[in-house]
Amino acid sequence: MADDDRRLGFTRARDLLVVAWIALVLGYVAVRIAYGSLPVFPRFAGVSAALLGVGEVVAGFHIRARLRARRIPRGGAEHPRSSVWGELKPLPPLVGARSLMVAKASSLAGAGLGGLWAGLLLYTAPLAGSVTAAGRDSLTAAIGIVCALVLTGGALWLERCCVQPDDDDDRDGPGPGRGGPGGSGLGAA
């Protein structure tokens, strides 16, 4: 098996949609079976997922800045760069790999949470006019879906930020030297 066949690629939308769809079906079935015996859903139960997503966005900016600080200017010696984060040291490879692992796991968790909240919403929305608790739970589910989307988006941003930038090109995108197919970034190793 060639090395390129075993590289870790970017999270695919297809994978996230499959996880979300499975979670939606399981969540809908579970709520349909046990809705009458479930406790009240806390209104802002999904906010913790959104906070994790925001934290991953901040971490992504920091990792991106540290990866770019590692670049050596043409014809110049390596020197640390400064930014809003202060004096930047190069990012140790293991930190980048761990960040990538967290990003991939969080994107899948966000898709799963979004699917579960969507399953709740799918069940409670039609009942919202006749059952008071279903109306409250529909709003809770909608908040949960938005928070799960924030987590997934933050995780995908962190994943993109774990790619080592190419010295000749500052634009984002997969390709040789950019972490895409045949690339050499942390996002692909």
Task: Give me a quick take on this structure.
With about 190 residues, the chain is mostly helical. It contains 4 helices and 2 strands, in the order ααββαα.
Protein topology:
Layout: H1 13-34, H2 47-69, E1 82-83, E2 86-87, H3 93-124, H4 132-161
Rg, Cα atoms, Å: 21 Å
How do the strands line up in the largest sheet? 1-2
How many runs of DSSP E, i.e. beta strands? 2
Q: Helical element count?
A: 4
**What is the H/E order?**
HHEEHH
pLDDT averaged residue by residue: 81
- Percentage beta strand: under 5%
List unreliable stretches of 5+ residues.
Answer: 167-189
Helix content: 55-70%
How is the main sheet built? Answer: 2 strands, antiparallel
Q: Rough shape? A: elongated
Could you describe the 3D structure shown?
With 189 residues, this protein is an all-alpha fold. The chain is 57% helix and 2% strand. The chain is built from four helices and two strands. Helix 2 runs parallel beside helix 4 (132-161). The protein is elongated.
List keywords for this structure.
189 residues, 4 helices, 2 strands, 2% strand, elongated
